[in-house]
Structures are given as structure tokens and as C-alpha cells.
Input
Amino acid sequence: MEAMSMSISWVASTTNILWIVSDLEQYKAWLSKFHGINLENNQSLADNIFLGYKFFFDVGFRALIEDLDSYPWFNGNDEIFMRAWTRGVYLDEIPNSSEYVVFLKNLWYKNLEKVLLAKNWESLEKRLKYFRKNVLSRFFKVLECCITPKSPFTRDQLYRLWAMDDALVRYVDSQMGHPKAYIDILIPTTSKYYRNNKNYLVSVFQGYVYTLQYLWYSILDKEQFLRIPHLNEMHIADKVFGKEVLRELGGWLPEEEFKIRQTEFERYIKWKSLDRFFGILNMHLVRKLEKEYGIRISPSNGEIFELHCKCNPREILKKFYSTPFPEPNFMSLSNNPDKTMNYEDWKKYLNVKFLWYPLDVLSSGAGGTFNGAAALIYLLSGICEFKKEHGIKDPTRVLRIKHREYFEDKLIGHRISYALLVEAFGELYSHPGWIVFYDVGTDFSGTGGSWYYSVEEVIKKYHQMLKIDEIIVPEMIFRKYLVDESIREVSKEHLQIEELKKKVLSCENLLKGTEEALSVCRGLLPELIVYLLINSEELPIKTLKNVKWRAKVRGEEIDVLAIDEIGRPHVFECKFDVHKEEFESIVQQLERKKMAIRDAYKKLPVLYLIFLFNKNNYDLTPLTKHDINVITLERELRKYLGIGTIDKLLNMNKTSLD
Output
């Protein structure tokens, strides 16, 4: 209730301030009477005041959004919004996870921002009238039925006192180079409302200080206003205090530095000059009032009013949360994972699903090792049993991440990853984080399937203690997300090697099938194994980088291409078995590729001819005479395929894919 009281009193203060300054007719009359300014006769001055007047609303609207952050009229705890807010996520990247989020979006994009997008005084006047009638009037209705002033204060006195303190604290305080309330939370600060002028904080200053001075003129009586030193000069604050601020800067800033950063320091001098009024107003007004009344006049002081709503605020504000608002475009990926491969969209979507918590990655290759399904099963079981023992009711979050698997353009199933949100309790408490178990199993193959179903059995056992979400994400996108977001360094090469290991191992299953499948694997295996061995540094050659599989160079396809530390290319031609009758054509083929690489990289490449097997023990010396490094990898091949599979491949008819 205390947080709600503080929130609603700040809302009251901001609503009152915005009500005062949004009366454009009165503001123009004051400019004419107090400063002799006719906006129709001086276009240049009118433009400056227009931009600064809008900027005052930009500041005030952000203050209102901040005041509403404890959402006193909405039930429930929106975990997605609270995580997004604490992580500095902007409103347009937050899904419509609750009525409160829809309320904020309708309020900002359909009402507040409309004012800031006005291009001229005529348009601004129409939008302000709409804003007063459809937004501020509704808030005043809520405030009138919920806030009861304590004696001796009246409602008008409360609003007036709160406006004084608020105007001082959030609109005059500009020591950071802008008003304190001009915060980059939920809504990004932007120049688009100010004709895309990147130095808009300089150009809006004049209009802002005129508007702020008008606010003080409106909430003080004439005697108070004139009694406060320099307040009648607030509109020229930079002229009154600018030299003093400049002298302070000159004491430690080299003249050359000032010339280089002149625009930046012009902004600093203007806003720092306005900030001088904080001390003046605090000393000559706010402290005196607090001494007179014997209380703090801040909206944070809940001792001077009671909060008891005699109406239903939700009903009064219904317009803002019952009107549908479109979801962010990236949220449609949940229903159509093949819609786009745009990584930025997927990143935003995955951030939502991972609640912007940190993550760490365990990758087990094919899932059947200690840091794959086994680790997930033991960790999930342990967490659930721990919560049982200690009576912890909060469910554990489990994210099931599916990656579609295709064969010959047909969907055959999914590779499955999981993520488990791990929390700490009691004296061990710290912020939660995800453990991601990458590629635990599959729902379409033997061994991978058994690990997947073992995990699902544990999930089924503890399902009442779990909060389970399932998403489908392209595996390439997910791998990049893990590389970018993991708290520990996860290299692309590591995940690519794991992927290649899976492809190599999966070939053994395919080899049990048709002759067509055998031909495909026979052609792919040499390239994949060489690519794998180069990345894992298992080949008897120097360390290479920038390894590419099936690189296209000047019309030639290079099986595997890599670069050494001095920038020299290395070309790998990969064959399954040695066929002596092909020696001549292989040499010719490598000569063409050597010329293509030379033209592209301006360096002659190192040539390699890699055979996985030399079944007939042919003499390979004729190949080496052409400056070709010849390597056979029979030992390495046996690490990945069983002897029966190798024999089957060796004894099949030679194909053009070899």
C-alpha cells in the first residue's frame, strides 16, 4: 500500500503539471504579457519555443511513465515486464504480457507520442486538447476518488505543493546535461521529435526554459514569483549564469579541448546554468514552505493524505488497456519459425523466452555423454527434490527448444535442446541463470531418441513442479545466440565441430539404408571429416584459421579451404578411396583450383589431396611430384565409423561423388 500511495501521489503531481502547461492558449497569452512575445511575428523564435515546448512534454511524459511503474491499478505480477524493465528493454520490444503492458503502449503510442509528433503549432494545439480531454481528465477522475487530503490541506493545496517539489526535483535539476526526468527507460530518447537534429538538447533549451518559467509563474502567486532571486530571468538562465559555469570549466579544461568539443560544452553550459536554479528555489521556496508547514512537501510523503479509492480506477482507465495493441513483429515467430532467418528478430524473441537472464552452455555433441541428457536429468531431479524437502512452491522453469531436421527437403523430426532456470536460495541467493543443454537428443532416431525420451520421463514425473515452455528455433540461429549470449566464451568453432561430429556419426545410420544414401555419405564423409580434423587441429599440419567448407572461388568449388597465420591459402581436395586411373584428372582439377585461388588471393596455395582410405595400397608418389601433399586418414576414419560400415563403403560401386 505504501508503494501504491507514493506512486499515485507522483501521478497526481505529474498530471497537474501537464495540465497547467498543456493549456496552450494561456501559455501564449503569458508569453505575450510577460515577455512581449508574439509567436506569429517572429518565426525563428516561434520555432525554437515550439521545439522546447514539445521537449517539456517529452520530459513530463517520461515522468508519468516512471510514476506508473508500480501499476497500482493492475493485479498480478508480470514477470516478463519486470525483467524487461530491469534490463533496460524498450517498450516496443516487450510482448503484450499483461493488461499493464497494453495500458502503457496505448497510453504512449496512441496518446502521448502523438503530441510529440506534431509538426506545427496548429497540429500541436489540436493534439493537446485531445490529450487534456482523453488522458489527463481520466487521471484526474481517478485521483479525485482515491486521494483524500489530511487536514489542514485541501486537494488544490496538495497538488500545488507537490508540483513545486516535483518541478524542482525533476524539471529544474539538470546537472546531467538534461532534466532529471528525461530518462532513457522504456522509451528511447530520440531526436525524431525535433527534426532529427542530433544536437537537439541545445536547440530545445530556449523553449524549455520559457515553459518551465511559465509553470513556476502558474503555481506561485505573483509576490512569491518576484521574490525568488533570478526566477524572472529563468528564460535566459544561460546568459545569467553561463559565464560563471564557463569559468568553472576553464579551471580544468584546456582551451584546445573546448574548441574541439564546442557543441558538447555549449549544451553543458546551458543546462548547468539552469541547474543553478535548483539551489535558489530549494533555499528560497521549498525549505521555507517545509519549515512553515512542518512537513516534507514531496509526493513521497504519505503523511499528508490518505489513499482510499471510492471508485474503480480500472473502469475509468479501461480505454487504455481494453483496446488491443499489436504484438511486436518478432513475436509472430512463435507460430511461424520458418518466417525469417533475420537474427536480430530471433534474438529479441529468444531474449523474451530466456527472460533476459544470463545463460551458460553445456554441449554434449550427440547428447549421450555426461554433460548432456545425463547431466540434465540429475540436475532437474535434484532441484525438484530440493524444493520438495524445503517446501519451496515456486515452479522451476524448463524451456524445450526444438530444431527442425530435414532430409531431402522433408521434415523428419527435431533435434532437441533444453534450458533449465537455476535459482539459488537462502544464504546462497543470487540472480537466477539458465543452464542450456545444447542438442540433448532427437525425436526421430535411435540413440538420440532414447536420451530425449529419458529426459521427457523425468519432466513427466515432476511436471506439477515445473513451468514448461516450448519453442521451435532454427539451429543455426540458436547456435549464434548461444555464442553471443553465454556468460562463458562459447566459440563458433566448438559448436560447428559438434555439429560436424553429429553429421559424421549420423552417416552410419544412413549407410544402413539405400544405395542412394550410401553414395551421398561416401561423397560427404571425406569433406566433413577433413573439415572436422582441421578445426580440432588433429591433422599433421600447421594451425589454420578461417576454415570454409565447399568454398566457391572464381567458379571452382574447393572442398575445404583454410588460411594459415601468414595469410597463405591451403586447398584440400577430399576423396574417399584411391583410384589410380583418376590420378591425371585429379592433378588437372587441382591445377585449375590452384590458379583460381592464386587469382583471388594473389598468393599460390598449398595443395593437399586427402584420402580417407587406400584400399589397394597404390603408390601415391606420382601425385607428390606435382607439389601436392598427399595424406591418408585411415586411422582417423576408424574413430568415427565401425569397421563393418567402412568395408561396406569400400566394396560398393565407385560413384562420381568420390
Residues 262-293 form the longest helix (32 residues).
